[in-house]
Predict the 3D structure of the following.
Amino acid sequence: MSIGKIIDLSKIIDPSRGNLTVVEQNIDIPFEIKRTYWTYDVPSGESRGGHAHRQLQQLVVALSGSFDVTLDNGHEKETIHLNHPYQGLLIPTMIWRTLEDFSSGAVCLVLASDYYEEEDYIRNYDQFLKEIK
Ligand code: TYD
């Protein structure tokens, strides 16, 4: 069983002008995109994430460079290496995620199903385990 789902996005290849990848809400991903953010200049050895979301769904894309995403549903963990700008990792609700091992120049794009709401975050792992029971 896999916790996250890798989505192969469309890749429009143009050998002379370069490639193009598209995401359309409710077509390529099962939600409407209300927010987009990206992280970059993550120092070597640092990690991001370290929380779960009660309602939020996200698609994570390594726009440039690479990093590892570890997903934890409270029972099992999996680590996915993202290194293609034409692939997205769909993270469902109530999954503890940690992003680490960022390469130099890595850019992590996140498409999110809702606006930023701190109340949607679970930032304490014991609280996460309590809520998934
Ligand atoms: P955080 O969610 O901890 O980042 P990451 O999951 O990448 O490690 O957010 C870091 C800070 O940025 C925190 O103070 C909340 C703020 N923030 C916003 O204001 N809006 C947003 O959309 C996001 C994702 C974070």
